Amino acid sequence: MALIDTHAHVQMRQFSGDRSAVIARAFADGVARMVTPGIDVPTSRDAIALAAAYPGRIYAAVGTHPHDATTLTDEALAEQHTLAREPGVVAIGEIGLDYYRDLSPRDVQRRALVAQFGLARELDLPIILHNRESHADMISLLRSDGVGLRGVFHCFIGDIAIARDALDLGMYLSFAGPLTFPKNTELAEVAAWAPLDRILVETDCPYLTPIPFRGKRNEPRHVTLVARRLAELRSLRFEDAVAATERNAEALFRLPTLAQAADAPTPTSPTPTNPENGA
Ligand code: NI
After folding, report:
1. CA 19–ligand 1 middle distance (angstroms)
2. Which residues surround ligand 1, an ion (CB under 5 A)?
3. Domain count of the chain?
4. Does 279 fall in a domain?
5. Is the dihedral of CA 23, 25, 26, 28 positive or negative?
6. Within-domain flag for 272
7. How far does residue 39's CA lie from ligand 1's centre (Å)?
8. 143 CA to middle of ligand 1, Å?
9. How far is the CA of 217 from the centre of ligand 1 (A)?
């Protein structure tokens, strides 16, 4: 039994100087596995290279983030389709809508999201959703174009009503650093209330560092702090929170158990082009 950081951007340039040390620290602290989402084609490719370097321990997701939605040309979508069939890819992500920062026009964000729903459906992969100040549109697009898809609302922020919408669509909720912020009572309420078999934990590193490390770069080992807070809010033993979230992540991403992964023959994985380059 060990934690899975279900959203760790360890391929990104913020980890260029010490990536293997960061990963080793996570493993040493009981974070045995992680899922590394892309935010565009190059970072998706880098995530796949990392997954090849750490088979059974690091998994990749392929996707274009709403901030970068303007980069999702037809060629990029075709490239993502190819990349998503590489070994170690377990999801389409991170994809979504962000009406808070609005770094891509909203209609472009919506188009990119729906196009990537299509990819997930075709390849039978779960989706990792980014949803910021865009809840109404996210739910309506999932209902119109995302029927039957499985996935997770990554770094879930919101109240019980919003959580209920996501759960009703069959989605998981993933909690990150904000769960540790004492003022976040609404989020604490959701974490205490949501069904235990639909909860994941993550860091979203290098962002969203939990207390008491705020202001510093986040890293996967800090997912332990999120799991501790989850356990506290639900009056669970820490081990039980770890076991439940691990089981949930294995179910959503269809991961072999750690023991199964260790038994599997090591794939003759290509040496990553250069995972130290990051994004
Ligand atoms: Ni992210």
Report:
1. 17
2. 94, 204
3. 1
4. no
5. positive
6. no
7. 8
8. 23
9. 14
Token duo for residue 16: 């260029």
Q: Structural domain of residue 17, as residue ranges?
A: 3-261
Task: Give every CB contact of residue 216 below 8 A, 6+ residues apart in sequence.
Answer: 209
Place of tokens 């990051």: 278
pLDDT per residue rounded down to tens, the chain (279 residues): 899 999 999 999 999 999 999 999 999 999 999 999 999 999 999 999 999 999 999 999 999 999 999 999 999 999 999 999 999 999 999 999 999 999 999 999 999 999 999 999 999 999 999 999 999 999 999 999 999 999 999 999 999 999 999 999 999 999 999 999 999 999 999 999 999 999 999 999 999 999 999 999 999 999 999 999 999 999 999 999 999 999 999 999 999 999 888 887 655 544 445 544 444
273 within some domain:
no
Nearest CA among 153, 177, 176 for reference residue 164: 153
**Considering only CA atoms, which of 4, 3, 18, 2 is closest in space to residue 206?**
18
Residue 33 domain-assigned (yes or no): yes
CATH code of 40's domain: 3.20.20.140
- 96 CA → ligand 1 middle, Å: 10
Enter the pTM of the model: 0.94
